[in-house]
C-alpha cells in the first residue's frame, strides 16, 4: 500500500487511527512531524514504543495548543517549513476543525505543505468529520471497529488510493510489541494456484492441497478430520513444506501428542485467531475448532470469517479448515472433501478422483 499526497484515516474512537498513522509513517519515513491535540509527547512515545514503534529522533512532536484556526495553522505551516519533514501527521483534525472556520485554512496549509515542501500529509478524523475533509484527500482509509462477545474485530477499508486499486478490506489486529498486524497482505494481488502433494489420501481424492485456495474437510464428530489434518501436517513437514496447525479451544490434543505436531492454540476469540494467521509464515495452514465459535455466536460469524479466510488463501497459502457441515456456504470453498470413518471423498477440487471413496 503506497500512500502519497494527502491521506485521510477515519473511524470511530478506538478503531486504531493513531496507531495506523504511526505504523505507516514509522515504516516509510525518516523524519515525521506529528501534531496532536489530545496527547502529550511522553505518553505518545511510551504508547508507541509498547507497540514496537520507537520513533527516536526521526519524530518531531508538537503538542498543539488549540487557539484561533488561522493563527494555529499558520504557526503549523511555519514549523513544517522550518523542520522539513517527509511526512506531516495531524492527529486528529476533528479537534482542529472544531475551532471553527478552519477547513479552508487547513486546505491551504495542506496544499502549500505538499506543493512547496513535497511533504506527505496524514489526517486522522472521526467519522462525522470525514466527509468534510475527504475531498482534499488522495487516499481515504476507513477503519471499522466492533467489539463482540467473540472478540474485537478491526478492518481497514481502502476507499480511495491515488493511482492504485481501491475497494478492498484488510482485517487487522493490534498487539503489544508488534503493533498492527494485517491478516492479509496490504496489496490486493492474488497468488498463483500451486498443487502440493501431502503424502496422504488427499493426494488421490483431490490431487493434494492447493496454495491460493480455501479447503474444507466436512464430516461428523469422530469421522477423522483432526486425525487427517495432523497426519497431513506431519507428512508435509517431512517433505520440507512449511505447514502450521491452529487449534481453536485447543481440542484434539490426543492426536497432537500422537503425531508429535505442535499446535498454535487460540481461545474462542476471533482477534486471537486473526493474530495467529497474521504471524504464521507457512505454505499450508490447517485450522481446527472454528465450529465452536459458530455454535455460540451464529452463522453470520461463520460467513464473515470464511470470507476472511478466503482472502488469506488468495494471498498465498493453502488454507484448510474442518466443519461438521457446510451450512449452505459451499460457494466459498474451492476444495471440498467429505470425511467419514477415515475415508475421504472429493466433492470439489482442480484434480484427483472426484466422487470416489479413498481409504486413508
Automatic annotation (TrEMBL):
AAA+ ATPase domain ranges (all copies): 3-147, 211-343
Protein name as it appears in the record: AAA ATPase
InterPro entries (UniProt xref): AAA+_ATPase, KaiC-like_dom, P-loop_NTPase
MF-aspect GO terms: ATP binding
Record has Cell membrane as a keyword: no
Coiled-coil stretches noted in the UniProt entry, renumbered to this chain: none
Record-linked Pfam families: ATPase
Keywords for the protein's UniProt record, in alphabetical order: ATP-binding, Nucleotide-binding
